Every structure is written in C-alpha cells, then in structure tokens.
Amino acid sequence: MRHTANSRTITLIVVGLTYLFIGAGIFSAIERQNEIESSKELFGYENHFRTLYNISDADFENLTYVIMGLQPHKAGVQWSFVGSLYFAITVVTTIGYGHAVPQTTTGKLACIAYAVLGIPLCLVMFQAMGDRMNNSAKSMLKSAGRKLGFKFDEISHKCLIPFGILSCCVTVAVGSVAFSHFEGWSYLNSVYYCVMTLSTIGFGDYVALQADGALQQRPQYVAFSFIYILIGLTVIGAFLNLVILRLI
C-alpha cells in the first residue's frame, strides 16, 4: 500500500513538472515574438517623445510614474466602501487583480492579517457551499429519474462530473455575455476574464468595474459582479470537489 502511494505521488510530481515545462514551451513560442515587437515599438515611441519634447531622463521617469499612478484613479474612487468590498473579495478569494493595493503601512499590515484569516475561512465556505450544491444536484437528478421511470439507489460522484462540467461552462458563458455587454469587451476577452477570475488567477489585465466610474455610478452592475464572482467560485469549487473525490 505504501509503495503504491509513493509511486502515485512520484507519478503526479513528474506529470506536474512535465506539464509546467510544456506550458513554458508553448507560451514562449506563442508570446515571445509579440513581446519583442511590442517592446521595440514602445521604446520607439519613448525615443520619439524624448526627442520631440526634449525630455530629460529624470523628467521622463517622473512622467511615467505619474501616468502609472493615475491609472487606478481614472476608474473612480477605489477605497469607497463598495470599492473596498471589491478589494476584500479579491483578497479572500485569492483573485488579487492588483487594480487597487494598500499604499499605507497600516493598510499593508491590515491586508496581511485580513488575508491570513480570510483565505482559510473563504476556502472552507466555498467547500461547504460546493458540497451543498453537489447534494442538491444529486437530489434533482434522482427526482428527474423517478419522473422518467428510473430508480436510483445512489448517484455516484462520477455521474455528477458531466453535470459539473456543464455547470462550469454555463457559468462562464453567462458571465462572458454579461461582461462583454457591460464592459464593451470582445466575447473572447470576456471568456478569458471569467476563466482567469473563477480560477483565481486574476492577472489584472482585464478587471471589471474599472471604466466610467462604474463602482459609484452603476450599482446594479456592481451587485451582479460581486454575486457572479461568489456564485461562480462556488460552482467551480463544487466541480473541483467532484474531481478530487473521483481521484482519491
């Protein structure tokens, strides 16, 4: 038994590392040339503006600092109660877009303490909600089966996996349509945003509620975004519970 467990662990480690190296090769092949071209273009613009306006190195660095610093403020007030709630959601769910970050020493210390306590609490909460969702799905499938004349003594976790996959796909599809509408993104970029958000990767290149002062001026959209993140993470958590139970 111990030998089997050790072999399985070693196999998973090898597969995981192999997957990482494959990913590195794929993304390097896809993105490297674009990075080189974009870098060349941007440095060309930099040299053009430096020459055109006779900007010194120090002034250009200061200008860059100001432009980058202003970026979050263009979206409106980030640290209102609603904006802070958005930030808190991204902390405890580990999404961490980076659209708003604490700047004060007190804020950074508070964020550390809040994350240390909130992340485990959030994980337990989503696991419990995911279990309830899976149990509800079992009951629904049993009820539907009885109405169709089938009898089920018990529905296995394996049988729920297709239901979980469908739930994840529907969740991403609904969110993609909504964010494409509200944010004006292409459908592909909206799918990308939803997957990056619900997988808690949260790169931050696409962040909802950052245009036209949406946090202050579009309360219905704010409510939808918050609820979508929480429900979406529950759906993903329920599916992952099924997969983990299947693999154990």
Automatic annotation (TrEMBL):
A single MF term (Gene Ontology): outward rectifier potassium channel activity
Membrane topology value: Multi-pass membrane protein
Residue ranges occupied by any Potassium channel domain in the UniProt entry: 75-133, 169-244
Compartments where located: Membrane
Residues annotated as signal peptide: none
Pfam families: Ion_trans_2 (PF07885)
Keywords, in A-Z order: Ion channel, Ion transport, Membrane, Potassium, Potassium channel, Potassium transport, Transmembrane, Transmembrane helix, Transport
Any one cellular-component term (Gene Ontology): plasma membrane
Keyword Mitochondrion (UniProt): no
Predominant localisation class: membrane
Similarity section: Belongs to the two pore domain potassium channel (TC 1.A.1.8) family.
Protein name: Potassium channel domain-containing protein
Native source organism of the sequence: Ciona savignyi
Lineage of producing organism: Eukaryota, Metazoa, Chordata, Tunicata, Ascidiacea
